[in-house]
Each structure stands twice: as structure tokens, then as C-alpha cells.
Design brief:
By secondary structure, this protein is α/β, with parallel strands linked by helices. Strand 7, helix 9 and strand 8 form a beta-alpha-beta unit. The chain is globular and about 50 Å long.
Length: 272
């Protein structure tokens, strides 16, 4: 994370007695003026499957302490909105959640951050309203092509059971906690009761991109290398040496916002 530099002018006792030197005198003395404050950004952090806006709790104060405007909305049917969950909710519902959030909060020049499943969501948002966005950051996230659903990128050995569960019940249970890279008992105790079922349609509905506007925005991919699942290796392999992307690696589990918040916050600011 870049830091705003501060240099304290050193003055002799005689200088202090005479009061502050005029600007011209300061310049001639070789003392450098303080640089102007770094422009602060507006971040919208979109959570992944089965989570809610709550999962960014460790990151929010880090970004806000640096003066940034930070938002962590919750997608329909998840988090504190679990009481309105239902099988009618699909990917388009979640894309509309963020589109409406940007509009109602009157947000512009936004750095849009998506974790995991939210890669599907933020791609759909960027395709619709690129003029509201400054850049995009995918945190160990799906990077979809038009006509593809999240299920299409799921590892083959897990896909059949995943589809069967969705077709039988219409809802998908959260993955085991170890697949999110959670090992701390404290983190596990905090996360476990907050994960909720998610409508299978959100994973099964293909994304429809109309103009691929997201491809024209500055984009960053953050790859979490310490994992029990390889769903995101496919994206890292493509983007690691792609000059059109900024690429970062964090040696942590999938839920980096929980397991490595300081490191992820630094990357988010640097990428913006």
C-alpha cells in the first residue's frame, strides 16, 4: 500500500524565534514542500457465494483509516438478507443488486472488487455501467465469458454432485470451511454460523455480456495460492503473464479478506 510521505522541517532555535520562513526562503533553503495528499478512492466490495457483506469486516477499517470511501453491500438471499432467500434468485438478481446500489448511493469512479463467485457479478455490472467504474479487482474470483455459468468453471469431480444437489433442492449448501482456507478456531467460529444456503440458479444461470465493456477497464487479479481447491488455477494460469492485467499472489486460503486482511488491503489500494 502506498503511503503519504511526510517530512518534518527541521528548524534551528533562531528560526523558531523569528517565526515561519516565507515560502521563497523555504524553497531556497532546500527544504522540500509536503506532497499533495494522495487521491482517495471509492471501493465497492462484493462478497462471494454463501457469504455476505459481513465477510469484509477486517478489511473495512483498514481502507477507511486511509481515508477511502468503502462499501460492502450484501446480495439478495445472503447474509442479513437470508430471510428473503428463495430458488427464484439468480445471477441476474445479484447483478441488479449491485447496479441498483451504485445508482442509489450515487457512486462514480468506483473500484469494484469481487471475491470468488462475485467475479460473475462484477463482470455483469461492468458490462452494463462501465462509466461508473474506475477499475476492477478480482480476488480469487471467477472470470466468465458470455454464455458461461459459474458451474461451467467448477472442477469436474465436484460438478456432478453440485448439480444434483441444486436440481433436487433448488438451494446449494455452503462448502466445507477448510475449502475456504480457514484454519484459525476464532475465524471458524465467526464464519460458520454466518454462511447460508444459496439459490442454485445463481450458479446455473449463464452470464450475458452485451458489449464486453469490462475488457476496457483496468483490471487486477489476486490469486490465493494456499488452497484446498483448484477452481481458480485456470484463471491464474491465463493472467499471470498477461500484460493487460495486474497480477498478485497471496500465500493464503481462499477467504483472503478473513485470513490475510492487511496484505489484501495493501494490494487493493496498490491496484487502484
Amino acid at each position: 500500500m502506498s503511503k503519504i510521505g511526510h517530512e518534518n522541517s527541521v528548524k534551528s532555535e533562531s528560526d523558531a524565534a523569528r517565526g515561519p520562513a516565507p515560502a521563497s526562503a523555504a524553497a531556497s533553503s532546500g527544504v522540500r514542500a509536503q506532497p499533495p495528499p494522495k487521491k482517495q478512492h471509492t471501493y465497492v466490495l462484493v462478497h462471494g457465494a454463501w457469504h455476505g457483506g459481513w465477510c469484509w469486516k477486517k478489511i473495512l477499517p483498514l481502507l477507511r483509516a486511509a481515508g477511502h470511501d468503502v462499501h460492502a453491500p450484501t446480495l439478495t438471499g445472503l447474509g442479513y438478507l437470508a430471510h428473503v432467500a428463495g430458488t427464484h434468485i439468480n445471477l441476474e438478481t445479484h447483478v441488479q443488486d449491485i447496479l441498483m446500489y451504485l445508482e442509489m448511493e450515487d457512486l462514480h469512479d468506483v473500484v469494484l472488487v469481487g471475491h470468488s463467485y462475485a467475479g460473475m457479478v462484477i463482470t455483469g455490472v461492468a458490462d452494463r455501467v462501465p462509466s461508473r467504474l474506475r477499475s476492477m479487482i478480482y480476488v480469487d474470483a471467477f472470470l466468465p465469458e458470455s454464455g458461461k455459468a459459474m458451474i461451467d468453471y467448477t472442477a469436474a469431480e465436484r460438478r456432478a454432485a453440485f448439480i444434483r444437489e441444486g436440481l433436487d433442492f433448488g438451494m446449494s449448501n455452503p462448502l466445507p470451511l477448510h475449502l475456504f482456507g480457514l484454519t484459525s478456531p476464532r475465524d471458524i467460529a465467526w464464519v460458520a454460523p454466518r454462511l447460508v444456503k444459496q439459490s442454485f440458479q445463481t450458479f446455473f444461470q449463464p452470464i450475458r455480456l452485451f458489449n464486453n465493456a469490462h475488457l476496457r477497464l483496468p483490471r487486477t487479479y489476486v490469486y490465493c495460492t494456499d488452497r484446498s481447491t483448484g477452481s481458480f488455477d485456470q484463471f491464474a494460469a491465463k493472467l499471470r503473464n498477461d500484460p493487460g492485467w495486474k497480477f498478485f499472489e497471496i500465500k493464503t486460503g481462499h477467504d483472503a479478506m478473513i485470513t490475510a486482511p492487511e496484505e489484501l488491503a495493501k494490494i487493493i489500494v496498490e491496484a487502484a
